Automatic annotation (TrEMBL):
Lineage: Bacteria, Pseudomonadati, Pseudomonadota, Alphaproteobacteria, Caulobacterales
Pfam families assigned: HTH_8, Response_reg
InterPro entries for this protein: ActR_PrrA_rreg, Bact_response_regulator, CheY-like_superfamily, HTH_Fis, Sig_transdc_resp-reg_receiver
Annotated NCBIfam families: ActR_PrrA_rreg
Domain Response regulatory: 23-137
Record Gene3D superfamilies: 3.40.50.2300, Homeodomain-like
SMART domains listed in its UniProt record: REC
Keyword tags: Phosphoprotein
Positions bearing 4-aspartylphosphate: D72
Protein name: ActR/PrrA/RegA family redox response regulator transcription factor
Length: 192
């Protein structure tokens, strides 16, 4: 067997097969990613429903109460955190994983506080998504390549910026740095 599902460890395949409810809701405004991820998750045994916008997701969730969800953090018409809350209102045992192209600790914290069980940066592999959805609460393995000191500094600045509601002046004041210096840091990509 050479399908993508064959790459999953047998214990995860068995766990998916043994699930009472395999309904999964996938929200992403990138149609190519949504289609590819949806097919990969279906191949692994989930019953996938997809949406491409917050509005479409809200409408679909009126009739669906998924056991699992994979949600994009930033969409053209809103924020995926709104959908985390909508799912939690209908089903508080749902397992939700957030995906984002903007991997910052501050947004990860916000996602987990809203009710997500994990947070993955794009492009996420379907096997990593499945592992996150089925995680049992054990501590994850330490990363092979931990963040550099520059990345930790950048993440801290991003967190304070998030907590200040993206107000550059307030963030600069709290961090004790010049506003222009902060603007230059925010304009750059995250260090590795």
């Amino acid at each position: 067997m050479t399908t993508a599902a064959a790459a999953l460890p047998a214990n995860l395949e068995d766990r998916i097969a043994g699930l009472h409810d395999r309904t999964l809701f996938l929200l992403d405004d990138d149609q190519a990613l949504r289609t590819r991820m949806g097919r990969a998750l279906e191949a692994r045994g989930f019953e996938v429903t997809t949406a491409g916008s917050v509005g479409e997701a809200v409408e679909l969730l009126r009739s669906h109460q998924p056991a699992f969800a994979v949600l994009d953090m930033r969409l053209e018409d809103g924020n995926g955190l709104r959908i985390v809350e909508a799912i939690r209102e209908r089903r508080d045992d749902a397992r939700i994983v957030m995906l984002t192209g903007y991997g910052a600790i501050a947004t990860a914290v916000a996602a987990v506080k809203a009710g997500a069980v994990d947070y993955l940066s794009k492009p996420a592999d379907a096997d990593d998504v499945v592992k996150a959805l089925l995680a049992t609460g054990d501590a994850p393995e330490p990363p092979e390549n931990p963040m550099s000191a520059d990345r930790v500094r950048w993440e801290h600045i991003q967190r304070v910026y998030e907590l200040c509601d993206h107000n550059v002046s307030e963030t600069a004041r709290r961090l004790g740095m010049h506003r222009r210096t902060l603007q230059r840091i925010l304009a750059k990509r995250a260090p590795r």
